[in-house]
Amino acid sequence: MKEMNRKRIDVLVVTYNEEKYIRQCLDSILMQTIREDIIIYIGDDASTDGTPGIIAEYAERYPGQVVPVFHKQNRGASANLRGLLEMAEDEYIAFCDGDDYWISADKLEKQRAFLLHHPHYSGNVHPVKIVDAIGNDTCIRRLDWLTSSDDMELVKYDGMHLPGQLSSLCIRNFKSMGITDLSVMESHRQVSDKIVFLMALACGKIRRLPSVLGAYRLVRGTGEDNASSLRIDTIRTMDARDMHLVNCMEQWVAANTDRSIKFIKARSQILATAIFHKIKYPAVHLGQVFEECRHKGLVLAFLPLAIYEKVGTRLRMKLGLAAR
Prior knowledge:
The protein is an alpha/beta fold. Helices cover 38% and strands 15% of the residues. The chain is globular.
């Protein structure tokens, strides 16, 4: 392992079939005022479009600063990100999904400065504007899976509401915080942000900065490879996989901290979602979801509230006021 650079920021970009977006993503990182202190590790998960060629172009243009990782077989977003985290050797780590982008040239400068002056914080996030597939602003002003708290700590984390969107996160390197085993990140093939935030919160608080410094691209039902575009074969088992993820998060907390968190609200929300999915898609494996569920008595007690909240969320989404 090389000596950790106490000033530099490693920016991790995971991408798959994002030829329409990856240039904007990389350009927004390379426009940063502290560009000389940035290394970009970009993992392409066996894209079948022009994404690898674009990445290779940037790697040639910025040798040593844009570091490509081309996977020959699709590993899933979680394994892709884990591999990049294991490569990162510098003091700070920032994240940007391949279809998102940053809108402020001093984003990383602000985030690094906060961490320099607040040693008890493990990271920070910021608000993002929500754009559509072509980058136009949407009328959506909130993401229902984000917490309203500006100061997040492990005891407040319910396993469901994140401190921020992953592309807004800047943290201290997990290695410098004593976390070297990242195998828990592959508890779910596609969802890793909940684990990243969990591990960061186990090491310190996360502050939400006030300024909007990035853009989150929301793609609905267009066949795009985006986390918000779900196919029926995915929906059939996704709730059981989500429940398994929460189980792994609970186990990780018990094994790596002095706390015990049961994530009851997250489990009740997953069960409520599975019920709605079962109504719409009879092929959904509801029994498998319940089998994966721990603390069943407590979860069932919270289920009516979870269903009520789910109805409210779906209503706001139909009105275009919120996004999943």
